[in-house]
Every structure is written in structure tokens, then in C-alpha cells.
Specification:
7 helices; single chain; mainly alpha; two-stranded antiparallel sheet; 2 strands; 241 residues
Length: 241
């Protein structure tokens, strides 16, 4: 979709999604600061209960994927999921193009994951340990492993961009052809699709990070101890008459 408006500054053209992205980032930053200051231990509000439930759900989902303490990864993946979900929901606002409907924004989000994977992998395994992943199980697979890193990053961006952009295009076409009420079910479906896409993006990011941080450990099988049981007793020796 073409941008709704553009602004040219110093010879550089800025599309509408850049300003929407900045507004969403500022809004979420202010909201998180205010929400963190209003946290209570007792008599919690409905907002805090919903926030704790969301945090617990994201943490539990990531923990099941990485199979370890998820706390190092929750801030990044949780922020990605929340940001993408809010951006996708902007499709409900007329004359506002969601940032995720722009391939540049989707590619930037995918590049964040692309950089986070080696960061966590090197922090866990060390530089050499992480680089060894690209030559496993054989050094001949090095080009394929490098190509896989690039293609999965491209797939993240294209999947997010394609789903959100196509939903907006369908809604706009139906609004033009059929009137104002017909696209409502399509918009509701778009909301569900947007939330699902945010969830899928976060899950895939967790999967990629888990593959980078998992350390193989080899354990030799321990000998099986003998089963406990009564020891055979010796027959009592007879006494001389």
C-alpha cells in the first residue's frame, strides 16, 4: 500500500509509518512507566491483574520453548509482542496505516531478532562455541546454515508484512465496493489475525534464541544398581549329638 502522506526533510522522504511508529513507541514507553509506578502488593487493581497475567503468560510460553529460566528473554520478546500487537490493532483506526503494513518496519523488527540470536548465543556459549553451530554436524553445511539465518529473517519480515498489508487491502476494497457495514467482520478478523501474528512473531523469536543458547551435554549411562532383595542365608550347621 502507498503511504497516506510523506514528509521531506533535508532531502530525505519520511513515510507516514515512521511517525506512527514513533507515536506508538512513545505511547508504550509512557504507559509502561506509569504502570510500573502504580504497582501494589495488596489490593491490586484490575489493570495490574491483567498486566501480571499477561507477563506470566508470556514468561511461561517462553520458558516452555527455551526450557530454562525465561527471565533473560522476556523483556525483548515481550516488548516485540506488545509492540507488534498494538501496531496491528491500529488497522481499526481510519486513515491510519499500521507500521507493520510497511515492509521497512517489518524488516526492522526481523533484524532485531537477527541481532538478538547471536547476542544471547555468544553470551551463553562464547564466541567460538556459537560459531561452531554453523559447522555442525559437518563443515560442508556452513553455507546452508548461513543461508538459513538470512532466509528465516526474511521470512519473519515477509510473513508479518504480508498478513497485515493484505488484511488492510481487503478491508479497503470491501469498503469501497460494498459500503461501510460489510467490512466490519473483515476488520474483526483482521484484529484476530493481528494478535495471532504478534504471538507467532514472538514464538519464532523464542525458538531461534533457544536454538542458539541450548548447550548439548553428554551423560554416560550410570550402571544400574542391583535390586534390593533378601540375601541367601546359609543353612545352620548341625551340633554333634
Amino acid at each position: 500500500m502507498n503511504p497516506l502522506f510523506t514528509v521531506e526533510l533535508f532531502g530525505v522522504v519520511f513515510a507516514d509509518t515512521i511517525f506512527v511508529t514513533a507515536a506508538v513507541t512513545l505511547l508504550l514507553s509512557v504507559a509502561t512507566i506509569l504502570a510500573s509506578r502504580a504497582l501494589k502488593v495488596r489490593e491490586i487493581t484490575l489493570w495490574q491483574a491483567a498486566l501480571e497475567y499477561l507477563t506470566t503468560w508470556i514468561s511461561g510460553t517462553i520458558g516452555e520453548i527455551v526450557d530454562e529460566d525465561p527471565r533473560p528473554y522476556v523483556p525483548l520478546i515481550g516488548t516485540l509482542v506488545l509492540f507488534i500487537a498494538v501496531c496491528n490493532l491500529l488497522a481499526l483506526i481510519p486513515r491510519v496505516r499500521p507500521p507493520t503494513a510497511d515492509l521497512a518496519t517489518a524488516a526492522a523488527l526481523a533484524l532485531v531478532v537477527f541481532g538478538a540470536v547471536p547476542y544471547f548465543g555468544i553470551r551463553r556459549r562464547g564466541l567460538l562455541g556459537y560459531l561452531k553451530l554453523y559447522i555442525q554436524p559437518n563443515i560442508l553445511l556452513l553455507p546452508l546454515n548461513l543461508f538459513g539465518e538470512l532466509t528465516r529473517t526474511l521470512a519473519l519480515a515477509v510473513r508479518l508484512f504480508g498478513n497485515i498489508m493484505s488484511g488492510q487491502m481487503i478491508g479497503a476494497i470491501l469498503l469501497t465496493v460494498a459500503g461501510a457495514l460489510v467490512p466490519v467482520p473483515i476488520l474483526l478478523l483482521g484484529v484476530l489475525t493481528g494478535l495471532v501474528q504478534a504471538y507467532i512473531f514472538g514464538v519464532l523469536a523464542a525458538v531461534y534464541i533457544a536454538a542458539a543458547v541450548q548447550v548439548e551435554t553428554s551423560h554416560k549411562p550410570e550402571p544400574t544398581p542391583p535390586e534390593p532383595g533378601p540375601k541367601p542365608q546359609e543353612a545352620p550347621q548341625g551340633t554333634p549329638a
